[in-house]
């Protein structure tokens, strides 16, 4: 049942090229550059009129939501607010029937996320679910569902469902942008072409980076703390890297926006602290280049204090190797889709460290696959 893999988690990490392909399949046309979302009782008119998108989710799905905010705001120019589902109801949200609700949930049964959805509906919003389980409660109560076709996820630590959520959010963002005419046909086509190349690129990472992460695990499996840094859309990916490591290896880990380090956490850095920095870039994108340059200065702030940097960078980045202890390479893609590539090394790193520490990676202590209590 584990298909020759030692753990479900590793099997599911390696299933990501297929999960991404299946989530894209049948939903895009490369001829017209259009995205088709079926199972939607929400019209293009609703999409055009939406004044805001409210997203609620928990855990890893919340990280996907936070990355999704970058995709939706960048492409469709609609303001997005992201809440922890467990907080949403209790902050007395302001009713706004022209806002669309978006719930992101692998299981579709998370009690906090369901409660947030019901709150949104009671305030007059239509809701859309991004869900991996057909017919799950949250999908049933939604006005529209974008199913992630990741297949059943057994490992408690979410991996392939997460990357499939990022892809579903990307499709949603492109669809919304088309309805609102904030991107041209050519732009739509170019974005979708990049998307279709993603599974092959993930395969490449799995081939090269898995062994490197296993080696890194030998060096770093005994540390007591880890830091993960990123900027822009890579910041939620840093949070996801930290969560993966915490939940399966029990090492304390924190994710931080790289630019915030100087406002406090720099005090933590010493020669014992490994710092994973997401330093990929899309050279064709001005914002991405700027982000990369700023990230390089953040790396120098860490190395100047003797912190040990493990960087995730794009292939062919020769500059970064001189600055850091280790580099894990991923192929090139556009800025928003780099988020899907740079999480893969973080999943593999967490996995190999946890295995070396003798942890039960598929069934971590104190955790359940789906959290059906509030
Ligand atoms: O099924 P959901 O996506 O709603 O679950 C949300 C979280 O409970 C889940 O992502 C959790 O954080 C995972 N253990 C992360 O690996």
Strand content: 15-25%
Residue ranges: pLDDT <50 for 5 or more in a row? none
Number of helical segments?
Answer: 12
Structural class: alpha/beta
**E-strand count:** 12
**Radius of gyration based on Cα positions:** 20 Å
Order of helices and strands: HHEEHEHEHEHEHEHHEHEEHEEH
Spatial ordering of strands, largest sheet: 4-3-5-6-7
Mean pLDDT: 95
Termini Cα gap: 32 Å
Give the overall shape, derived from the CA principal axes: globular
How helical, in percent, are the residues?
A: 40-55%
Bound ligands, named by name, code or SMILES: 5-amino-5-deoxy-1-O-phosphono-D-mannitol
Biggest sheet, open or closed, and with what strands and sense?
A: 5 strands, parallel
Protein name: Glutamine--fructose-6-phosphate aminotransferase [isomerizing]
GO biological process, one term: fructose 6-phosphate metabolic process
Function: Catalyzes the first step in hexosamine metabolism, converting fructose-6P into glucosamine-6P using glutamine as a nitrogen source.
Subunit structure: Homodimer.
